[in-house]
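user: Please review this fold.
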Amino acid sequence: MRYSISGEIAQSVRLEFEPGEFVWCSKGGLMAYTPGIQWNLRVPGGLGGAVRRSLSGEGVALTYLQTDQPNQHALLSANAPGHLEVWDLENDGPVTTTRGSFLCAWGDDLDITVTVARRAGAAIFGGAGLFLQTVSGKGTVLVHASGDFSEQRLAEGEQILVSTGNLAAFSSGVDYDIQGVGGCRKILFSGEGFFMTRLTGPGRVLLQTLKRQYGNAAASNAG
């Protein structure tokens, strides 16, 4: 699939389809398309996937685009200010995206699932919630960040503390947990809340410069 990313404030992507090619995109991400593109709503993972997706806040279904005609294209956007980053599943491995960060994915043997955060504390207080979306297989994922991206490459055992709402996506091998900020003055006056998100490598981490508000109680308590 050929693609080109454009824009400065709120980036979009143009996907060039050949017959038989397809793409999964976030619900509401389809901006425009040529008449030869067919699309519908599908639920990755069947009924079980639908239940987990409804709890993740990503919506039950994704938009599935395909065509059997040549020279077709579609324009996708995240409907919010920010930038797009390419995640190559073969080079970087499976990616876990936080709520609102997944725009689209295409390739072979794609598996789009909703997984449970491995640490209870991270699930309750980490801001991104109990359920996170993971994409694996052979192909490409486009990740959306609010604002700009800051990329980190963590070595084995290397850690980074991230303010809640600034985490966009990370390698599925990265350990995701929380750590208290410590001290009453920090909690009351720093604006960071009770916890920071602690990530432990190895793996790739994509941060976003503008905090994303998740709209749940856990996120509010965390900052």
Q: What stands out?
A: Residues 183-192, 215-223 have pLDDT under 50 and may be disordered. Helices lie at 46-56, 89-92, 120-125, 184-189, 217-222.
